Amino acid sequence: MSFLHVARRSTLVTASCRRLASTSGAPAAPTDASAAPKKKPAGQASIPQSSCPEGTLLKGFNYLKGQAPILAKADEDYPPWLWTILKPKEYPDDGPGGKAERVARKRERQQAIKDRNFMSTQ
User: Where is the composition biased (Basic and acidic residues) (predicted)?
Assistant: First the structure.
């Protein structure tokens, strides 16, 4: 049994339990006020909506034979860093010769190499 198989098992159990618990596919409404969703403070950033609603069958994620299908979770169930993973990394401007300047020079050098290679093929 591989590490990935063990790591995925808890996700699969959660997904299969959720599928069995919801027969209509819609989430159940909270019955009392304590279970109602709470508003976040104004200073706290809100989590963006994902591209698929909770309970959506995610095709292509289940690549092992004989495994239960993978279902999307609620946005709150994913870690907060997941929503910022596609944002470009920002380096603090720490003066000449700093990290931001070195990264910018490297990016310019790489682009110059790509441009030179492209022009040599024309």
Answer: 99-122
pTM over 0.85: no
CA 115 vs CA 18, 19, 103, 104, 121: distances in Å: 51, 51, 18, 16, 10
The full DSSP string for the chain is --HHHHHHHHHHHHHHHHHHH-SSSSPPPPSSGGGSPPPPPTTSPPPPPPSS-TT-B-TTS--STTPPPPBPPPGGGS-GGGGGTTSPP-----STTSHHHHHHHHHHHHHHHHHHHHHHT-
